[in-house]
Amino acid sequence: MIVAQAAARPAGTFAKAAVRLAGLSGVLFGWTPDAFWRVTPAELRAPTEMLAGALAGTLAGTLIGMRARPPTARRWPG
Predict the structure, then answer these.
(1) pLDDT, tens digit, for every residue of 23-58?
(2) Helix (H) or strand (E) holding 18
(3) Which pLDDT score, from 0 to 100, does residue 38 have?
(4) Closest Cα to residue 36, out of 20, 51, 12, 52?
(5) Which end of the chain has fewer CB atoms surrounding its CB within 10 Å, N or C?
């Protein structure tokens, strides 16, 4: 999702968008630039969707847990 959102932003040129995606894939997945350029769009989509699902599940669990507590005890964990 994060990578998909970065790609969806108007970058002006393909090169700028590709550099941004390559950087994000390195940060998020530990890929080298060479690894990024060798993957297919489906191979990029798979870990991106998995990461987005994990983040959504974590956020949903946190929000559900917060709603289960009385309003006076609701604090963001951490």
Answers:
(1) 888 888 899 989 999 998 888 888 888 887 777 666
(2) helix 14-29
(3) 92
(4) 20
(5) C
In this structure, what is the dihedral angle of CA atoms 34, 17, 51, 57, given to the nearest 10 degrees? 180
Q: Both tokens of residue 12? A: 């002006």
**Orientation angle between helical segments 41-68 and 14-29, nearest 10 degrees:** 60
Against a cut of 0.70, is the pTM above it?
Answer: no
Query: What is the per-residue pLDDT for 8?
Result: 56
What is the rounded distance in angstroms from the CA atom of residue 77 to the CA atom of residue 54? Answer: 17
10 conformational bin, left if phi > 0, alpha if psi -120 to 50, beta if neither: beta
